[in-house]
Amino acid sequence: MAQAGGWQAQLLDLRSLALPVYDGDLEAAEGVPAGALALQQAIAESTAVLVVTPEYNGFPTPLFVNAFDWLSRIQAADGHPAGLASTADKPVGLLSASPGPLGGLRAMNFVRQYLQMAFAMLVVPQQFALGRANEAFDAEGGLSDARAAQSVARVLDALARLVPAGR
C-alpha cells in the first residue's frame, strides 16, 4: 500500500535485530549491540517511519519496547541527548492490529507517548487500529475491508504531509 502511494518502503522486522533483553550491566560490559545500531541507522536513513505493532495484554510487544530501550542508549554525536540522534523530529505514523475488537488501540497509545516523550518523534494524530485482524486479510495479504484500507491510506497521507519538501 505504501508503494502504491508513491512511497519507497523498507520493512524492518525487529526480530531480525537479535537484541538481547536490555541490561545495564550487559551494556557496560559489551556496549550497545549491533542490532541497536542497525535500528538507529535504519531510522536515520528514513524520511519517515511507519510503526505497525500488535497488542499483547494492552501493550506493544516486549520486542518493540526492548528495541527502543536499546536505541535510547546510543550516544549522539550531534549534541542531542542519547537516543535522539536519529529520532528527533522524525515523522511517524502508527498502525496496530489485534484479534480483539479494539485492534491494538491501547498498545498504539502507549507507543505514541513513548515515541513522543522519549524520542522526540513527530507522531501524526491520525492512526488506525485494526480489530479482528485475524479475519481482515484476503488470500493475497491485502485488507479485505475497503474502509480499513482507506483508514490506512489516511495515516499515510498525514505522514506524507509531515515530510519536508524535497525528501
UniProtKB/TrEMBL annotation:
Q: Which domain of life is it from?
A: Bacteria
Q: Listed GO cellular component terms?
A: cytosol
Question: PANTHER family, per this entry?
Answer: CHROMATE REDUCTASE, NAD(P)H-DEPENDENT FMN REDUCTASE LOT6
Which InterPro entries does this entry report, sorted A to Z? Flavoprotein-like_sf, FMN_Rdtase-like_dom, NAD(P)H-dep_reductase
> Where is the secretion signal located?
none
| The name this protein goes by in its record | NAD(P)H-dependent FMN reductase
Kindly give the SUPFAM superfamilies that the UniProt entry links to this protein. Flavoproteins
One GO molecular function term of this record is:
oxidoreductase activity
Name of one Pfam family that matches: FMN_red
Q: In this protein, which residues make up the domain named NADPH-dependent FMN reductase-like?
A: 2-134
